[in-house]
Each structure stands twice: as structure tokens, then as C-alpha cells.
Write a structure and sequence with these properties.
Length: about 280
């Protein structure tokens, strides 16, 4: 029996504090709001008690951040797409930011198990003056646990309407894509980290971010398989390939700290759940 879970979050400023109002249907929850860096930033952890999706399951996540509010959202563990029989499993996320809003979308990795039929969709809608930092890390199978990605398909869709659109499908039996030099080159983790603005990012601000990010990644073991660029004046994106998730996540957290300081003049206060 397929499960449909929906979650709606609405962030606003109340008496100088970023607060969230939420409602859910099905097995998807928001843990209580935390304020490890003061009232201005609301930290939330999303919990999916079943722990994964199988064929026919759908997670539908929607967040709206009102003017002046700042939300940081993460998860306690990986999103898992298990082997599917027939229908695809779907996670669809829509994040909408009003002018002057900030958001950090920082879920832990997504794992596509062998035999899955998975669709992962993320849509970002930012009004002029809104800004966000987000990331996506996907692992194909668990090679170190003896569970390689030998069958199935994983489709990913990332969209900023009118600005940026990426849509692609990875099939386990596509050896040219999985192992070819112009594909994943045998790597089984691919990741993107992005800074997105609702208005053009000033050239000097963009160039400084690119320079500092390149200097940071040059000293990292993944330097040969990652790069940062600005494909649009409202987007900066860092991409990497890695054999497993851990080195990519380590680098992503380092760059997140760098971008938080550069773009928002904020120290990096990591969600408590990351250290558990």
C-alpha cells in the first residue's frame, strides 16, 4: 500500500523572532523549533518515520518563507529510495521565498538503492531580494556495504523558473553514463551546492565568492572532481563527484560555512542533529 505524506511550513517574523507554522498529513513531521543562534534564525528538522520510500510512495514538502524570516531546515538521516515494484517513488519539494527572506535547505544525503524507480524534484521560487543556500547529495547504492547500484533508475529535477532547469535520469544499466569519462567516471556520489538569489548578485560579490570557494576546494581531496561556477547572475553552484557521500558532505559543510560568512556575515552554527 502506497503512502502519501504531505508537509506545509510557513515561516514568518513574530515579535522579532522567526517562527514556523506547519501542518502535515501522513508520516512526515517537523520537530520543535530550535534557536541555537538567537531568535532571528529558526532551525527545524524534518522527520519521516518510515525511513524510506518504496514504489508508489510520495513525499510532498512545501515551505514558504515570508519577508524578514530566516529558516534553516535539515534532516536527521538520509532519504532512502528502496527497490520498487511498478510505480515510482516520488519526493517533491517546493520552496518559496518572499522579498527579504532567507532559507538554508540542508537535508542529509539521498540514497538510491539498487532496483529503485525514484523521482526527486526540487523547485525554488525566490522573489527579488530573497536569498538561499541549498544542497543536494545523492548516493547510488552503498558500495562500501556491498550494495552497489546494479539496477533501477533515478530521476532528478532541479528548477528555478525562468532561470535554471536541470532534469536527468541515471539508469544503472547505462554503463557509458555510469562509468564513462564524460559521465560519473565510476563515482557513485554526485552533489550540488547552490546559492540562489531573487535578484542579480552583484558582480564583485559573486566573483569574491567564486575565488574563495576555489581556494578552499583546491586543498581538498575532491579537488580534481569538483568545480564552482556562476551559470546565471542569480546562481552560484558547486558540483562534485565522489566515491561515497562522506568526503562530499565534509566539503559541502566547509563551503556552507564560507558562504554563510561571505553572503550574510553570519557565523556557521551547525544544526545540533549533525553532531549526533
Amino acid at each position: 500500500m502506497a503512502w502519501l505524506a504531505t508537509l506545509e511550513m510557513d515561516y514568518a517574523v513574530s515579535h522579532g523572532k522567526s517562527v514556523v507554522h506547519h501542518r502535515h498529513d501522513g508520516p512526515l513531521r517537523v520537530l520543535r523549533s530550535l534557536y541555537p543562534e538567537g531568535a532571528a534564525v529558526c532551525h527545524n528538522v524534518l522527520v519521516h518515520p518510515p525511513g524510506g520510500l518504496v514504489g508508489g510512495d510520495t513525499l510532498d514538502i512545501r515551505a514558504h518563507v515570508q519577508a524578514g524570516a530566516h529558516a534553516l531546515v535539515t534532516t536527521p538521516g538520509a532519504t532512502r529510495f528502496y527497490r520498487a515494484e511498478g510505480a515510482a517513488a516520488v519526493q517533491q519539494t517546493r520552496l518559496a521565498l518572499d522579498a527579504g527572506a532567507r532559507m538554508e535547505w540542508l537535508p542529509l544525503e539521498t540514497i538510491a538503492y539498487s532496483g529503485c524507480e525514484a523521482h526527486n524534484r526540487l523547485r525554488l521560487e525566490l522573489a527579488p531580494g530573497a536569498e538561499m543556500i541549498g544542497w543536494d547529495l545523492t548516493a547510488l547504492g552503498l558500495p562500501n556495504a556491498g550494495l552497489p547500484f546494479l539496477a533501477g533508475r533515478y530521476t532528478q529535477h532541479l528548477e528555478i523558473p525562468g532561470i535554471w532547469l536541470e532534469h536527468g535520469t541515471l539508469a544503472a544499466d547505462d554503463t557509458l553514463l555510469m562509468d564513462g569519462a564524460l559521465g560519473l567516471a565510476g563515482q557513485r556520489c554526485f552533489a550540488s551546492l547552490f546559492f540562489v538569489a531573487g535578484s542579480p548578485i552583484a558582480r564583485e560579490r559573486r566573483e569574491t565568492a567564486l575565488e574563495r570557494t576555489r581556494a578552499l576546494i583546491e586543498a581538498h581531496p575532491l579537488a580534481a572532481r569538483c568545480g564552482v561556477t556562476s551559470p546565471h547572475e542569480q546562481v552560484i553552484v558547486l558540483r562534485a563527484l565522489a566515491p561515497v557521500v562522506e568526503p562530499a558532505m565534509q566539503l559541502w559543510q566547509q563551503v556552507w560555512r564560507l558562504w554563510r560568512a561571505h553572503f550574510w556575515d553570519l557565523p556557521a552554527v551547525a544544526p545540533r542533529i549533525w553532531s549526533m
